[in-house]
Amino acid sequence: MQYPTIPICPGTLLFLPKFCSFPQKLQLFQPKFPVVGRNYCFCRPRTASPGGFSVRSQMGTLSSRDNGFCTLIEYMGRGGINVGDDLVVLFDHIQYACKRIAALVASPFNSALAKQSKVANSGSGSDRDAPKPLDIVSNEIILSSLKNSGKVAVMASEEDDVPFWLNDDGLFVVVTDPLDGSRNIDASIPTGTIFGIYKRLMELDHLPQQEKASLNSLQCGTKLLAAGYVLYSSATILCTSFGTGTHAFTLDRSTGDFVLTHPDMKIPSRGQIYSVNDARYFDWPEGLRQYIDTVRQGKGSYPKKYSARYICSLVADFHRTLMYGGVAMNPRDHLRLVYEANPLSFLVEQAGGRGSDGKSRILSMQPVKLHQRLPLFLGSLKDMEELESYGDVQQKVNPGYEV
């Protein structure tokens, strides 16, 4: 049987057989058998080992102890911060799903998916963006991995109208935006996956299934056990926090491991960059216009002129802000509290920054519906304090932009 192949790095191919559980037009990226590289098998999740692990390949065996590298699973395991076996298993399935999405995003088959007939928006009014073929495939990949983990009771996704109840024995609730920024795929602009993990609320088990699924997914951000994003760019980077700092792992495509490259990330207390679509300047409130005018002239609390950097990809703009400081923002009611604002605010706070809607701390907000939208400001602590001191920074004028 002939399978399509996707090159993911020099010397490595992914073999992707079709799978009958996918919608017919979207079968391409659902493997029926392990996804195999020439030198490494990506499909079977490994369990954490307190004594390190070995990579077995046609090129020999390499222990993580031999080179000083620490993988994501090692870091989480008993030799690292020891988050518990259940969370290790869940993360192993999440990282596997994200490797598949990374291969999907980099694949030449994207053009074929993009030419599929337009997918209608089945969401609840304006609360959801119209799903695209790549969004749907990414959502199915994550759903399949979470089911296979056996650890997840509820999955709530940007691509679904309501949360799914997956497993009566699951301990966790996962909220996710499977492929943020998918409109940028054709231009090869970075995209990402965002996720947050909560404990399942056992006290809700007496309720009907759909009701308890919905309530489990509407937990306050202060209850997050872990959160993360995966950036699909020149490198594939998984950035995560378990409540003990923010750490980033880079995918080593020769072994298939996420390797710790940015331990204990700290966002600078002040940056020199703002990230916003300032083509909307004349729709902004006076406070936000004054803030931007002030900092880009170098007349703010930091006496240097700020630069504008804007990709229009939430994960990419946030990742740059986390690395270099400053503020990333969308001042209108556009981004979703549950699966975008909460996870990213958790990460920036763990790195020493702040997440806000322009007035209040994001993580302290109680969600009232799954696709609830709000303004979002993320960044360095001193920059955020200065921004909020201008008062009126939330954009209420929303004429319905097409791009």
UniProtKB/TrEMBL annotation:
It catalyses: beta-D-fructose 1,6-bisphosphate + H2O = beta-D-fructose 6-phosphate + phosphate. Keywords: Carbohydrate metabolism, Hydrolase. One of its GO terms (biological process) is sucrose biosynthetic process. Residues 84-263 form the Fructose-1-6-bisphosphatase class I N-terminal domain. Its EC number is 3.1.3.11. Coiled coil: none annotated. Residues 267-390 form the Fructose-1-6-bisphosphatase class 1 C-terminal domain. GO terms for cellular component: cytosol. One of its GO terms (molecular function) is fructose 1,6-bisphosphate 1-phosphatase activity. It is an enzyme of class 3 (hydrolase). Gene3D superfamilies: 3.40.190.80, Fructose-1,6-Bisphosphatase, subunit A, domain 1. Belongs to the FBPase class 1 family. This is fructose-bisphosphatase. It comes from Rhizophora mucronata (Asiatic mangrove). The lineage of its organism: Eukaryota, Viridiplantae, Streptophyta, Embryophyta, Tracheophyta.
